[in-house]
Specification:
The structure holds two protein chains of two kinds. Chain A is mainly α. Chain A has one domain. By secondary structure, chain B is mainly α. Chain B has one domain. Chain B contains twelve helices and no strands. Chain B starts with 13 loop residues before the first helix and ends in a 6-residue tail after the last helix. The chains are: A mainly alpha, B mainly alpha. Chains A and B meet through helix 2, helix 3, helix 7 and helix 8 of A and helix 2 and helix 9 of B.
Chain lengths: 266, 274
Amino acid sequence: MIELSVSRARSTLASLRLAVLMFLADPQWLIPSMIAPVIFGLVAFEIFRGSGPYFVVYAILGAGMMSMWGQTLYGSGWATGQDREFGTLEPTLQAPTPYLYVVLGRVIWNVLSGLIGGLIVYLVVILAYGRPPPLVDPWAFAGLFVFVVLTLAAVGVVFAAFYVYTRYAGFIQNVGEFAFYVGTGCMFPVVLLPFWTSPFSLFFPPTWALDALRYLAIPGYAGFSWGFGIDLLGAVGTTAVYLAVAGSVFQQVQRHVLESGDLQEY
Amino acid sequence: MAPLDPVPTLRPSFWRNLWANAVFSPRTSLGFMRLDFVLGTIFIIPFTQMLFFAFTVQLGGGSAAAIQFVVVGNAVATVTYSSVFSVCQTTDSEKNQGTMEHLLVSPANRLALYLGRGLIPIGVSLATVTVALTYAAVVFHVPIAAADDPALAVSIVLTAFAMVGFGLVLGGVALYLRTSIILGNIFLFIGLLFSGANFPLTDLPAPLQAVGYGLPLTWGLAAIRAALSGASLGSLLRLWGILGFAIAISLLLAMALWDYFERRALSTGSIARF
């Protein structure tokens, strides 16, 4: 049993290492994770200029979230898409290690690079602002921020699984990018959107987690009326559902490949 | 028997070349040109991008005029997807598909070849801005007077041509690069910061303003904003003149870049590959 766990951990580590090397060899992923968010952060900073110190937090959080969303949308899509394009999907699925552990290594790198992007956004915006933004409880903020990242990772794993079954991954990534930013309230509270859009927004774990994070970081923040505690519960609940869905979809993918063997066709 | 023409005309005509490139390039070398992408670029991206920035301004306590400012700015800025991002990938795709060598040894007129590839993106760009401005008027209540329509139409057309010209310049640069994706993406996003799409260019430090004035999007936006505000013909003509100049410079620069890198490719044989 222990041997099995070690083997799976080794596969995830190897996959993570390869993801880092591929990122360095083909740095086009710098754009969604680092360049675009910095620009969005600076645009938001300029738009919020003169609105008050806590709006700097909005700009940093928003652009940081966009960095991680970008990495989730593009990177996690590619986490399975690359196997289809390179023709390695079926051989990888035939390996004794479950495919999920291979994808996990790639998703972990996406999360890490998204975090690095968020850090770069933070540094650039405070450079423009001239001082660090005010934070009520920096340690709790940091802890919750890591949780927000985990909710995005859960979304990333579901997307990675879903993209195996669709030829429209590129469409969802490129055309749907701003829709995700709007729908999950990256830069502004979701409550600003029309009420009927809320169910769609609440479908995504980051919406809950980000609202909780803003409650923690911005005094007087007016997000969902149920407040911080329910936001946190909602984030944990939806993340658990996403992880369960991802696990079952990946199992189905594996079964499908073993039965029909036609997933490699790109 | 009639004597044979000693020098048969092998070069296809300019117009035939132009048309063939216009028709085939969306299916072969331009990026972002699958039907779902094109429809998404025209109908979805402008709406979601305008919505994003409109709500951001609303959060910051911006006035209705400030919201309309960013709505119009982003309505025009979304043209970058079809003009710059799509067009600059054309040389990239040729290298990726292994067809660059064949292209370099063909006698095809380079202006027809290059300009032809920009025709469909110009059409998509026109549609994108038109649909986006319709959203601006219907959803965000940006006032567009019927009397301003002709000036607006001229501004949109010139902006589309100028942006595609800029995309062709980047495509020329991409001939020398391993990939044009980074270049295209950088210019896709810096327009949001340096062109006056989201705040007046004068809010930026002077060196960054200079960068902004070097982008055709800045002048296209200025022309469209001027047309919407019912500016005098004199000021419109000045902006149209600058856009016309940008189109001419872009085409000349694109041709020069293509010529330079083509010579390098033929002499070294090293940059035609991906």
